[in-house]
Batch of 3 targets.
Target 1
Amino acid sequence: MSYAIAIDGPAGAGKSTIAKRVAKELGFIYVDTGAMYRAMAIYFMGKSIAPSDEAAIENAVDGVDIRIEYEDGVQQVILNGENVTSKLRDEAVGRMASATSKYACVRTKLLELQRGLAKTSDVIMDGRDIGTTVLPDAQTKIYLTASADARAKRRYDELVLKGEKADFEEIKADIEKRDYQDMNREISPLKQADDAALLDTSDMNIDEVVEAVKKLVRVI
């Protein structure tokens, strides 16, 4: 029987970083939903469908199959039997993914594919509504969070390290604004699932968070 770990939480909490590390250490598949949206975009582009043609996109989505595999520890995205990993970061693909991800038919199909992966493989997914909507039956659910100050500091340090200008208060205000939007959106708002473990990482480093998540998995 496959095992699923759902990690939800606000922006800047480090969900993807932690999920990728945990997946690698446990031998799970990290389901990169962004890569899946881009793979769908490649499919639509191959069909010469305009991003504004919602009807054509809705008619085409049933022909999409996306799998995530690993080769020498590197994630590979397979679209209808073809490895499209090298095409995922093309700018045109990104634009197409951004334009088509808003459609309900695309999101519904992606949800179906994500659940299909969880039925056949040990997976870890992160997002805003994984434990509440995408994988409500996940064996382990974690709400990963940190204070707005801690998240802003991490982002500030990241930008400074890159040599970019950064304003701590501006970053914090943006995080708080995004938190409000995510928690109050109409469809699948960000919230802690009733059966999710709360993990506040404000005073933890990455290694400590990874170990904490792994302990929660072992408890189940």
Target 2
Amino acid sequence: MPQKGLYIFDFDGTISYTGDDIALSLNEVRKAHGLVPLETKEVLRFVGYGAKYLIDNTLNVPGASPEDILNEYKKAYYSHCTDTSRPYEGLDETLDRIIEEGGTVSMFTNKPLNITLKMLDFFGVRDRFHSIFCPENLVKRKPDPEGIFRCMEEANRSKRDTVMIGDSKADIDAGRAAGVKTCACLYGVGDREKLLEAGPDLRISDIREITDLKI
């Protein structure tokens, strides 16, 4: 079927499994401050709402500036973000099919901008995205819908032509707040129970299924 709408993708757990590199980077900083490492599944509980939220919930270092700790994490993650993270199988063909059939691909993520761009370049798909919005080029992050509105403005698309695609409650909440369709990625790393409780309009179990859905 024709894909002429605007498809806004989240990053972590939506186009790539990134949990191991995030946990490795976080634990590198924890170790530097004498803290025991956390299991990846514990770290993933706090992924989806941005690096600050992750650090606030996993890296409390007495006497240290939270901003300094956040910057330490961002530096560590920038170094490790492509150690094991790879795009989900079928990402290339999915993005290409959307574009070939007249659709537009954008990204709205709470992931730091420099890391997002580095990874998209590493995956070889940065050129597919019409626009990319991260905390550094927005006023507010998800679940605020600002990034969705910016993506629609850049692509000259309406709410009825737009779908927000992600694996966390923050993605669905942002989409609902923007008044656009929402698609839950059941294969991602987000809390599935909370993801479904958020009431997504659509659900997929493989990224390639997105091109078979009517938005």
Target 3
Amino acid sequence: MKILITGGAGFVGSSLAIALKTNYPTYEIYCLDNLKRKGNYPTYEIYCLDNLKRKGSELNVARLAQAGITYVHGDIRSKEDFDSLPAVNAVIEASAEPSVLAGLDGTPDYLINTNLFGTVNCLNYALKHRADFIFLSTSRVYPIKTIETLNFVETDTRFALTDEQPVRGVSSKGIAEDFPLEGARSLYGTTKLASELLIQEYNEFYGLRTVTNRCGVITGPWQMGKVDQGVMVLWIAKHYWEQQLGYFGYGGTGKQTRDMLHVADLYRLIDWQLHNIEKVNGQTLNAGGGLESSTSLQELTKICQEVTGKTIPIKQVPETRTADIRLYVTDNTKVTQLTGWKPQIGVRQIVEDITEWLDKNNKALEPILK
């Protein structure tokens, strides 16, 4: 099997690539006919396409090479960069400009060209080779104002959704796929939603086998965390190097709540989809940590203190920032019913895994994360 992973030197792309190569150094094939015989063992070939724009991506190139994965320097905005790639059996579209604040400075060209037109190039490449197409979308396709009108309760440490809600597709378990899509969601979310719509068209009219995953907050080792993307790693790294943090918005109490999906849990879902895509062909699925792996900033701070043994100053800023939301938790009911998949790694283990990664790679990561 040959697989192309776009954004392959990024956090998610490289994590998926290395996990695939580790678990499938060879692909064992059995042929069913009137004789049961063992076939040969063609190796998985995994190609990673990336432009190395994100800080820290260069560290992953060496990791990919060590794992025996072919890294191709290219840009999904350029359809010519796909011409030198071989035919593949599957495309995992993990490339994106992932910042929810991207384009809000009035220059959205890079965002739109990458997240929308780049997806078109990926779709055309997949169609050319009749390759299965797995798309990593985002929970940010759900409109901000609608989320902000949801009923919630305020506990001592977090905000939590209630079962009685003014719109469909939401309960105390979180937000489901039939949540209303009318309204603004950020330019980032809009480009991903537009890509989802195009994927539906390719699936319906070209017969391309596809599945779309609306991912919540993905995190884990090798994520280069920033304020607007990768908050879990940012929070842990600030504790690790004893630097200041802040609770921004919603009164400055740190009760904003998100669910966290360890990239190893995401890999288990993508692995299943690669080998069972006929069972989810054409589907759009939420994929997040769920209520069981959710945390507020206040709760995350306590866990970071316990795991790192360090307490840092955290300022309180009551004013809410642009494009922020009070809480988001993924309702994974649909994906669990269709695939049997559910997250296994909780918030404390995520913090422990990232802290251990910081310990092992301190010198390389300090210039990037400190």
